[in-house]
């Protein structure tokens, strides 16, 4: 049965990570998930705006939710930041009559209203619910792929807003990844922030954080990092380029998106999965991925 969602891509994915979008769309087609382009979408509002002007953040993010509501669709997004902003807005507007009234006063001027009927979901949530279907589609097992999975902050926190009161959510994505024949390894800094939000304020601190993250992944025996967030991916696949530890050993690890891993195991078109757009060399895992 086809599942239909309005897909909220956000800002970073269309501008910087076409490999994430392309691999997501390819996976969706294979799993009979209809992704409807989100007509009229604006920026999600971001947690940055929330810290400056909460009402503007709620109105901007609420407008996106109300647009999907007006068309009778749920929202799915592959971006942790957008998920966090939209989900948090939905939480506030659903629970606070005062905030909902103020936002709807603004939305009514453009013919929209927030009612709370539309669900906001991350793409990995949708994938997890289809794990049995995915299992049957694995035809190219990724034996030898040792994954350090990084879930990112906004997928998980705060749990009462994200809807994941189950502390095992990262393990659910691990389970998805291990359907491919890969091993999702435990590593000490798995749940630590990647440092991406600090890039604007202090690149030195952000760089130190990613050095420690990758060192932890390497020490744990990983041969790649896997993410489901474009901001986190910026750290693992861009900021890490050229980084070395105190012994002058490279801290680079191939950085992949969850959708690329699943797509390779399903033996989908490698060009459409966008591997050529990954920045860190994939040579250590090239043969395993069938590249």
Overview of this structure, please?
There is one protein chain. The protein has 291 residues and is α/β, with parallel strands linked by helices. The protein folds into 2 domains: 3-122, Glutathione S-transferase Yfyf (Class Pi), Chain A, domain 2 (Up-down Bundle); 141-289, Rossmann fold. It has helices at residues 12-16, 18-30, 46-52, 54-70, 80-95, 97-108, 123-129, 131-137, 159-162, 169-178, 203-219, 230-239, 258-265, 286-289; strands at residues 3-7, 33-37, 75-77, 120-122, 146-150, 183-184, 224-227, 255-257. The strands form 2 sheets. A 4-stranded parallel sheet has the order 2-1-3-4. Strands 6-5-7-8 form a 4-stranded parallel sheet, with helices on both faces. β7 (224-227), α12 and β8 form a beta-alpha-beta unit. α3 packs across α4 and α5 (80-95) crosses α6. The protein is globular and about 60 Å long. The mean pLDDT is 92.
């Amino acid at each position: 049965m086809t599942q239909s969602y309005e897909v909220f891509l956000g800002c970073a994915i269309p501008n910087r990570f076409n490999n994430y979008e392309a691999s997501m769309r390819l996976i969706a087609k294979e799993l009979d998930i209809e992704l409807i382009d989100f007509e009229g979408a604006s920026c999600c509002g971001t947690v940055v705006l929330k810290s400056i002007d909460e009402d503007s953040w709620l109105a901007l993010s609420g407008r996106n939710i109300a647009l999907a509501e007006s068309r009778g669709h749920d929202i799915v997004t592959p971006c942790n930041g957008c998920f966090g902003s939209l989900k948090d807005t939905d939480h506030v507007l659903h629970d606070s009559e005062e905030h909902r009234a103020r936002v709807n006063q603004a939305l009514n001027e453009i013919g929209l209203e927030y009612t709370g009927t539309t669900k906001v979901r991350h793409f990995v949530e949708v994938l997890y619910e289809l794990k049995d279907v995915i299992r049957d589609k694995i035809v190219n097992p990724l034996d030898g792929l040792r994954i350090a999975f990084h879930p990112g902050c906004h997928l998980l926190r705060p749990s009462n807003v994200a809807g994941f009161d189950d502390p095992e959510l990262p393990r659910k994505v691990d389970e998805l990844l291990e359907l491919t024949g890969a091993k999702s390894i435990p590593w000490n800094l798995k749940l630590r922030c990647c440092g991406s939000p600090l890039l604007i304020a202090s690149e030195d601190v952000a760089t130190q954080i990613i050095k420690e993250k990758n060192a932890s992944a390497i020490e744990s025996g990983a041969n790649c990092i896997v993410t489901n967030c474009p901001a986190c991916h910026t750290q693992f696949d861009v900021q890490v380029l050229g980084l070395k530890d105190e012994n002058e050993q490279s801290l680079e690890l191939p950085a992949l998106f969850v959708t690329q891993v699943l797509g390779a195991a399903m033996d989908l078109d490698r060009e459409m999965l966008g591997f050529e757009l990954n920045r860190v060399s994939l040579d250590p895992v090239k043969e395993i991925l069938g590249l």
